[in-house]
Amino acid sequence: MIKKLSVLVCSASFAALPLSAQDAKPEYLSPPEIVAKAKAEEWVAIAPSDLLVMDLAPDAKGKARRVVIQLMPAPFSQGWVGNIRKLAAAKWWDGTSINRVQDNYVVQWGDATEKKALPEGLMTVPESAYVAATELKLNMDRLDAFLPSFHESFPEFAKQFPETRNASQSEMSKRFRKTLKSDLYADANMMVEGWPVAFDLKGSHWPTHCYGMVGVGRNLSPDTGTGAELYAVIGHAPRHLDRNIALVGRVIEGIEHLSSLPRGTGPLGFYEKEEERVQISSMRLGNEITDQPTFEYLSTDSVSFAAYADARANRRDPFFITPAGGADICNIPVPVRRKAK
Amino acid sequence: MIKKLSVLVCSASFAALPLSAQDAKPEYLSPPEIVAKAKAEEWVAIAPSDLLVMDLAPDAKGKARRVVIQLMPAPFSQGWVGNIRKLAAAKWWDGTSINRVQDNYVVQWGDATEKKALPEGLMTVPESAYVAATELKLNMDRLDAFLPSFHESFPEFAKQFPETRNASQSEMSKRFRKTLKSDLYADANMMVEGWPVAFDLKGSHWPTHCYGMVGVGRNLSPDTGTGAELYAVIGHAPRHLDRNIALVGRVIEGIEHLSSLPRGTGPLGFYEKEEERVQISSMRLGNEITDQPTFEYLSTDSVSFAAYADARANRRDPFFITPAGGADICNIPVPVRRKAK
After folding, report:
1. Is residue B102 within 8 Å of residue B263, measured between CB atoms?
2. CB distance A320 to A200 below 8 Å
3. What is the ipTM metric for this complex?
4. Which segments in chain A show pLDDT lower than 70?
5. Distance from CA of A212 to the nearest CA of B (A)
6. Which of B130, B221, B286, B318 could disulfide-link B48, Cβ–Cβ 3.0 to 4.6 Å?
7. Model-level pTM?
């Protein structure tokens, strides 16, 4: 069964394939297998009011296209997120369109005419809000302070996940420290309440531009954008945009309706003809949608997430020969799934 | 003109847009502007015999779809590359298909039936060939040894690129060292003859899984694949595959014909129905194609490449407020273009 499935599963949203009888029993679980084994209480429900649901016009075959975005929680970008809530309440995006698809970069949507009046009461957010202050003043010599949940939970972790049986607590700690310190665009990073976040030594932190993240288009500084013009990342993490544009959320379902769109042939991937644009039928907060499924994410403070992140950085499942020994934060996507009814 | 073009250009293949009169004259060049200014002699032609040209069946609108791949040079993966040359000569891929498109991961093609006989004389390549030995035994304290061209060329660099006018040679050297040492999946990395390459301290080096790279599908170890089953990366760099699968090249034109394909709905993104598969009309070496355009890449030893890489890691062009101060090797794509006739 596994024959010719060649490159192994990467996305946590796919269940691992059963191994056929002649294959050796795996010694170690793959990242998706670890996620599948996580306990129900390790998952955190996402409030429907924190979802932004975008329905595109049906595709050429008449199939519905729904994209579900989870909005960014405090302390990040709340000025723009507030604007987005107002824009959704005003049904402002209905009838607007996707206007730009640049390969290995972004899909961007909003009002192509640039003339549609914005609802009243939108906030002008200052550039200082691209980052948030944190009380966690980073001390690079005391990174273990960031890992309390790991240290507390190590015995249970080792019991649950036999792949740690050959690793001492100090070895595991060393691995986590390496991952935490390893950010080429910041002094450090860590997952904070389900989101990838970068830190500097001055007491600031900010969300990171990973695949699927949603941000706010803007003009040249000091403009910061309103939130009416949005984009989603569909390529290698453009981390150079961190701290330069506001991130307001991430796509948690239906990104294929954006990432598989034809690339625009104009400068920056803009569509050159009106008929190339993809119409947005509606965009609403999740609590305004009938029968909106509930989503949940794997708590990034959970033992299972720690095991998952470690496995992403150190692949030991059967396909792999040489574990990398590290991973960048955008290569450890936070597992999100529909909550079982 | 630049209004609403929001997220700035990322790809080196787009020319910078002209600024309108009211915009301030940029103090610093953007990465694409630096590439556009590179001298003719800084570009290196790619031999047509090192190209693998894949023609897909025309799209729904009858438009041709050609994907051009540059094959990996020695010392990397030459066993598989040799097999690929034989497969192309035997027209083995003609009539096969793209069978898998997994979002944020890979597009994979080959014989969906798994029954098509392979040409004779293909080599079985050992796993040891996933890496190559290098005489450059890495000494982390002497990384400057990797940067001779930069040190030799700094005066010319500073003259050509006014953005360095505020940076001393030692500052520039520090920036390069930071970039070079910054690899979360290896001890170090650098560009080698136009390719992104990672190094370990033991004297090995290997190409890295960046966006657009092409690799060889395989079964479980010790299988290493023949080269008949290929994939291209269409998402965030899956660097955990480095040293675990052979990389044999990269897409240099037409990747949008792969990355914008509908995602497969089966496990691992395989297409579930035969009619979803995209037929491969032909796949040939570039020297067997009539009117094959010549491509060239910006020499990664050139002064312009050094300036480009530095600008990718430290964006100072008008859109940016806070330069990142670093970049991962997959966020510094090597510029490739058609050679002017």
Report:
1. yes
2. no
3. 0.87
4. 1-27, 135-181
5. 9
6. B286
7. 0.87
